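Quick one, tokens below:
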């Protein structure tokens, strides 16, 4: 068979390359548009979180009441500036691995026996404790006996930021028996506390030290929520343009071969 006739037959047609290119474009453009929607959502989230973190503190019970009453999703209670008061239960403090500028270090998370229990859903028992992220201590001062002077016994007032406990990549390496944790696994910590007064579903990260110079040092910095959705969107749109360029180059090349 003449090669030129073969080129003009079905195998030389642009039908399937065109169909496949259109399908690929639809997928790439959909992914890019989805990332643009995610960008708008993330920007709104960052604005809300930053505004909440800078606002005047509200009692923790008031913030959680909105969640309990269904006025806002649980996730929207995070990074809110709150105040609580009560007595620390130092005996049951937790240690979360937190290396940083001072080298090997641990974040101290201590249950706070609340002066006023938090509101509860109908039929549920009100939470009388909350886990407070007090701050960081170096490795050699991890044991509470090494910093006894920084562990207040009376009622303390805490102003801080609400956090939702999450498990991270290395959470499986946590060793509750030796009080070594690798994430703010509030569910695991509450389980480790055992039965007793219910514990709030959120943690409170303190803004300032409670207990003087020997107390754990808070490291409450700026909120850093990653937002790379624009970068991802441009990547998908860029791939779509590349696909168009490849298709056009292929079509032009075929046209030249057929014309030769």
């Amino acid at each position: 068979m003449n090669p030129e006739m073969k080129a003009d037959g079905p195998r030389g047609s642009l039908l399937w390359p065109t169909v496949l290119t259109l399908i690929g474009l639809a997928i790439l453009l959909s992914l890019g548009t989805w990332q643009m929607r995610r960008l708008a959502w993330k920007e709104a989230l960052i604005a809300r979180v930053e505004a909440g973190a800078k606002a005047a503190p509200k009692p923790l019970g008031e913030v959680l009441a909105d969640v309990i009453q269904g006025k806002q999703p649980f996730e929207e209670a995070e990074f809110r500036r709150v105040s609580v008061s009560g007595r620390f239960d130092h005996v049951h403090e937790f240690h979360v691995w937190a290396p940083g500028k001072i080298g090997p270090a641990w974040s101290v998370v201590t249950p706070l026996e609340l002066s006023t229990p938090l509101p509860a859903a109908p039929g549920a028992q009100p939470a009388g404790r909350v886990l407070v992220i007090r701050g960081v201590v170096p490795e050699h001062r991890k044991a509470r006996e090494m910093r006894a002077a920084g562990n207040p016994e009376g009622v303390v007032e805490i102003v801080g930021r609400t956090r939702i406990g999450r498990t991270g990549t290395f959470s499986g390496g946590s060793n509750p028996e030796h009080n070594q944790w690798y994430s703010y696994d509030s569910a695991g910590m509450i389980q480790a506390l055992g039965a007793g007064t219910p514990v709030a579903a959120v943690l409170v990260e303190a803004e300032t030290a409670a207990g003087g110079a020997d107390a754990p040092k808070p490291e409450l910095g700026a909120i850093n929520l990653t937002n790379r959705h624009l970068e991802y969107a441009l990547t998908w749109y860029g791939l779509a343009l590349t696909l168009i360029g490849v298709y056009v180059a292929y079509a032009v090349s075929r046209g030249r071969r057929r014309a030769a």
